[in-house]
Amino acid sequence: MRSLLIAAAVALSLTACATQSTPPVAAPAPTAMAPAPKAPECYNGDSGKFEAIASVATISGVKVVCEKTSDGKNAQWMGIKK
Question: What pLDDT was estimated at residue 55?
Fold first, then answer.
């Protein structure tokens, strides 16, 4: 009889926990719009900064120009064509 009482008490407490409602979750705050992607740039290790497309520089004694890659997503230093 005693074990029946304990089992009933446990079942009642589990049922009470299972039926409790949780408070509603607040809606997330609206996020700011993502910034526009930056234009591709070339890194100049000699000067330690990024250079814009069409910039001409001398890197390690070689004259180069910053040009977009074929996919348009990146840029790289290319030798100046004569």
Answer: 94
Which tokens in the block code for residue 49?
């900064």
Q: Which of 36, 35, 80, 31 is nearest to 58 (CA)?
A: 80
pLDDT at 13 over 80: no
Query: Closest by alpha carbon to 53, among 74, 36, 68?
Result: 68
Pairing assessment for the beta strands 62-68 and 75-79 based on DSSP bridges = antiparallel
Q: Which two tokens stand for residue 67?
A: 């040009």
Separation between Cα atoms, residue 77 and residue 35, nearest integer Å: 26
Token pair 């079942």 in the structure block, residue: 11
Q: Whole-model pTM above 0.85?
A: no
Give the end-to-end CA distance of the chain in Å, rounded to a whole number.
102
CA distance 82 to 42: 21
**Residue 32 has what pLDDT?**
73
